[in-house]
Amino acid sequence: MPEFELARRIKDLPPYLFAGIDRKIAEAKKRGVDIISLGIGDPDQPTPKFIIKALAEAAKDPSTHQYPSYQGSMDFREAAGEFMARRFGAALDPATEIITLIGSKEGIAHFPLAFINPGDLAICCSPGYPVGKTAVGFAGGEVYEAKLTKSGKWLPDLRKIPDDVAHRAKLIYLCYPSNPTGATATSEFFSELVSWAHKTRTIIMTDCAYSEIYYDEAEKPLSIFETPGAKDVAIEFHSLSKTFNMTGWRIGWAAGNDQLIAGLGKVKTNVDSGAFNAIQRAGAIALRSDFKSVEKMRRIYKRRRSLAMQGIKQIGAKAAKPKAGFFVWAEIPEGFDSDAAFADFCIEKAGVVVTPGSGFGEAGTGYFRIALTVDLDRMETAFSRIEKALASR
Ligand code: MLT
């Protein structure tokens, strides 16, 4: 049998964070452990019924069965544009400034292929959603990690980025509301970022997948396009996954500068054939809805956030309340050598999955992340199990 050697870009890559965790879950389940997963951020509530109904109807229409348009259906792009205008006051032309994605992860993973040459530099945040950094690597680029800190409110300090890095960097990738920290970007930060990008001629890639999961009407997460001048330099990634509990459907969009959208579009014409038309039709109906279903989800996450904050105290860990998104980012309790050791302990001794902070980059060391995607009873059980396990350690 011949042996096939993996390409270096894959061989040198650790398993995708959640694929590695899935393996541990499968092993524990095989041993008969009742696993409670606070790991991946995958909404437990179903997609709202009106969206499922729209999909079922659209799927019956044979015109949805053929190849979709590469850029996405005009109806979906218009619905995304209407949402951006209504929610953020952002004016984007659906014809040239919006493209449909097969989930925002797909767009984030493909975008660097359009603008990064081998040896180019990109700035990614640590801790940060790992896909941005990996995607730069796939394009042959190098990554400069901007370290985020609690005292810096988990926002990059642009003044600390060395001049040579700022001038060499082709792009900067950021995620706000932040996965994993739950921090949000302020308008001051976005203004500073946009002027910095103009000055250094850097592309801004913002990941806005959690924009609708917030806890306080007065603190609604921002889009970069609320900042003047952003459209000259930025592309932003949006998703229906978290807003409408549609992770499995794979639907989202990117919005922004027309050259950036066209570059991403050119990559996509070569690697995929677009998102299923019936899903785009249902997605457009979701985006044009009254968002009552999202309000309901926000109330659910708020109750879970309160319980999680108590639970975190109960197990001797420390966390600040997340401002948005459905993750709580916490410092591991004392007595563990590393966040990986704590995460292993939780799964082995309590049957609870938490995500080790270092999985989001070196600056996540000493932290763990929990997702508020299980119901209150299960979450309470998870924390009691960890507390008990810690007591008998
Ligand atoms: C997460 O848990 O970080 C996300 O659900 C992963 C993703 O959106 O790909």
Helix/strand layout:
Blueprint: H1 8-11, H2 17-30, E1 36-37, H3 49-60, H4 74-88, E2 98-101, H5 104-115, E3 121-126, H6 130-138, E4 142-147, H7 163-168, E5 169-175, H8 187-200, E6 203-207, E7 234-239, E8 252-256, H9 258-271, H10 277-287, H11 292-314, E9 318-319, E10 327-331, H12 339-350, E11 352-353, E12 355-356, E13 367-371, H13 376-391
Parallel strand pairs: 1-11, 3-4, 3-5, 5-6, 6-7
Antiparallel strand pairs: 2-8, 7-8, 9-10, 10-13, 12-13
Helix pairs in contact: 3-10, 4-10, 5-6, 5-9, 11-13
List keywords for this structure.
393 residues, alpha/beta, seven-stranded mixed β-sheet, four-stranded antiparallel β-sheet, 13 helices, globular, binds D-malate
Tell me which ligands are bound: D-malate
Number of helices, counting only DSSP H or I runs of 4 residues or more: 13
Shape: globular
Share of helical residues: 40-55%
Radius of gyration: 21 Å
